[in-house]
Amino acid sequence: MSHIQLDDLRKRFGDVEAVRGIDLEIEKGEFLVLVGPSGCGKSTTLRMLAGLEDISEGELRIADERVNGVAPKNRNVAMVFQNYALYPHMTAAENMKFGMKSAGDYGDDEIERRLDRAADILDIPELMERKPGELSGGERQRVAIGRALVREPEVFLLDEPLSNLDAKLRVQMRAELLKLHQELQTTTVYVTHDQTEAMTLGDRVAVLDAGQLQQVAEPQELYDFPANRFVAEFIGNPAMNLVPVDVVEDGGEVRAEHEGFSVGLPDQAGLDDAVGQSAHFGIRPEDVSLAGNLPADAPTHEITVSVTEPLGESLLMHCDVGGDEIQVKAEPRAEIRPGDDIEVGFDEERLHLFDQSGDAVYHSTSATPKTSEAPLTE
Amino acid sequence: MTEFTKPFDSSWQAYLLLVPTFAVLIAFLYYPAVETFRLSLYQTLLLGTQKAFVGLENFKILATSPEYQRSFVISFAFAAFVVVGTLVVSLFVSYLLFEVSRGTSSYLVAAIWPYALPTAVAATVLMFLMHPTLGVITHYLEALTGIELDWFTSGPLAFVVVGLVAIWKQLGYNIIFLVAALNNIPETLTESAKLDGVGRLKMLYKVYVPLISPTMVFLVVMDTIYAFFQTFPMVDLMTSGGPSGATNLLIYKLYRDAFEFNSLGKASAESIILFVIVAILMYVQLRVSESYTHYGA
């Protein structure tokens, strides 16, 4: 049974349609991440779930109950805001208790019990008597999460909760959020613009652009089988390379022809339809290998390195191939200088084709997720 | 690198440009202040054409004068009434303005408008609206309550009526500041409270008031100054300090002592006292509020 159901949900601000019909079902206990660039409507969608924005059109159901127009407090949801939204004149404990005390539905003992429990879970009992001004960013975020916890809501809504933290703390809090969710198993909807956060946190990730849902899938599926160019480029860092190619049939083999290379495409669904069309060929920087790492008979292509970026764990190269730029990830400490011509091969299991409208028409591996196999070592 | 240029070649140019400002300040502020202090030590006749040094005699006379003591008490009561009344009403109105989402500016203009009215005009208009025999407001109030509201003869009523006019006049000033302060509160705090189901009134006094307390302290100080110094036209036009001294505020009394009874020396002494009172009050207000006010995020 799905816990939250969005049915053609729309939001208009005057003439601007910020959310353009979102259909989405969120399972009970699921951690769903809404991800997309600024202005894609992800926060608006979350705010509609919370009841902070009116729904212009469509239907929203929580626990099988239509909640369009239901006041936020009656939806049994708790929200964590990007700027924490702590009351600056109250201590952490007062901040966490304020909502429950005001609602008046809980006895003092119950409030204290929940407060202690939340403080323990988040490991912040020693911060309880401090005011937000005396807390660091990470501590404030813990208190803000604690405030949501004490309500023991049906649904957690988190609006870019880690965006104001520094990079190191963000990674740490990310892990803690995951742990917390495993412990509580509360349905969670999490908004972020950071695809890494989306990939690491989400049971499923919903990618939004321009107010429309682009794809909803498990993180790995999103990465392996992007439904369109937007998802392909948005998920994964650095972004997937996309270059224009002509798909041609040549002696029983279908090939993607580009000025700088020609790649044989393994037979998979959709390939026949693509033949004779011009398309965009997609390959991730990490799926391009230096020729030295490939078997001797593997097809290779010559590309020219224009810029190198040593990332530490790998070397990112911006290369020129037949007038288009592609990025290639090589092992670190590779002796490659800008201006060098290098031989590379494409992982033929990781090739993608997108048609002119941007939809994916072909992935070189079947889109049914494989059961995990032990990785092969060379 | 560009050379750092001084705004003026020499400092005398800067001094020269400051001269007009200081000339005005000295002529209309510092000199009269010093002169007032000097005059307070003299007994004067005929608008100060004849005077004799009497030391602190003026202050002694005032301290022992029952009329002055009464005026003193009335002024404090009046200030308390006006400051509290203004703050409470303007806070309420500001909160409504803050909550309303349509036509905000029209409401705001309507609420601020009395402040743009010259005090004398406001006093005159309201005097006719509340006139015991001609006034529209008094007519309906009397019809509704059955009580006779003759504030021309009743001291306490006159005090309240002048106080209400003073409050009404000062509302706009307070509302401008309070609405601005309320709008500075991060919206997520309001939204968070909505999710928690915190009631509006509770939100106001538990969250908004503490957060805008710096603005409220400022307004307490400004309203106190207003109540002591700027309510003169209302008293002068509406009650002339009466009936039987019920609205004889210090500021009005010192005017009469100076220009009706020609005791410039005594009036100067009253000015000095009034100045000291307000200065002390402001100091106390600021010190007391320090422990309650929440500054910064």
Helix/strand layout:
The complex is a heterodimer of chains A (378) and B (297).
Chain A: E1 2-13, E2 16-27, E3 31-35, H1 42-50, E4 57-62, E5 65-66, E6 77-80, H2 92-103, H3 108-122, H4 137-150, E7 155-159, H5 167-184, E8 187-192, H6 195-201, E9 204-209, E10 212-217, H7 219-224, H8 229-234, E11 241-250, E12 253-257, E13 262-264, H9 271-274, E14 278-283, E15 288-290, E16 301-310, E17 315-321, E18 324-330, E19 341-346, E20 352-354, E21 360-363
Parallel strand pairs in A: 3-8, 3-9, 6-7, 7-8
Antiparallel strand pairs in A: 1-2, 1-4, 4-5, 9-10, 11-12, 11-14, 12-13, 14-20, 15-19, 16-17, 16-19, 17-18, 20-21
Helix pairs in contact in A: 2-3, 2-4, 3-4
Chain B: H1 11-39, E1 42-45, E2 50-53, H2 57-64, H3 66-99, H4 104-116, H5 119-129, H6 136-145, H7 155-183, H8 187-196, H9 200-211, H10 213-229, H11 232-239, H12 250-259, H13 264-290
Antiparallel strand pairs in B: 1-2
Q: Explain this structure to me?
A:
The complex is a heterodimer of chains A (378) and B (297). Chain A has 378 residues and is of the alpha+beta class. Chain A has helices at residues 42-50, 92-103, 108-122, 137-150, 167-184, 195-201, 219-224, 229-234, 271-274; strands at residues 2-13, 16-27, 31-35, 57-62, 65-66, 77-80, 155-159, 187-192, 204-209, 212-217, 241-250, 253-257, 262-264, 278-283, 288-290, 301-310, 315-321, 324-330, 341-346, 352-354, 360-363. Chain A folds into 2 domains: 2-231, P-loop containing nucleotide triphosphate hydrolases (Rossmann fold); 238-363, OB fold (Dihydrolipoamide Acetyltransferase, E2P), CATH 2.40.50.140. In chain A, the strands form 4 sheets. In chain A, strands 6-7-8-3-9-10 form a 6-stranded mixed sheet, with helices on both faces. Chain B is an all-alpha fold. Chain B contains 13 helices and 2 strands. Chain B has helices at residues 11-39, 57-64, 66-99, 104-116, 119-129, 136-145, 155-183, 187-196, 200-211, 213-229, 232-239, 250-259, 264-290, and strands spanning 42-45, 50-53. In chain B, helix 7 runs antiparallel to helix 10 and helix 10 packs antiparallel against helix 13. Chain B starts with 10 loop residues before the first helix and ends in a 7-residue tail after the last helix. Chains A and B meet through strand 6 and helix 2 of A and helix 8 and helix 9 of B.
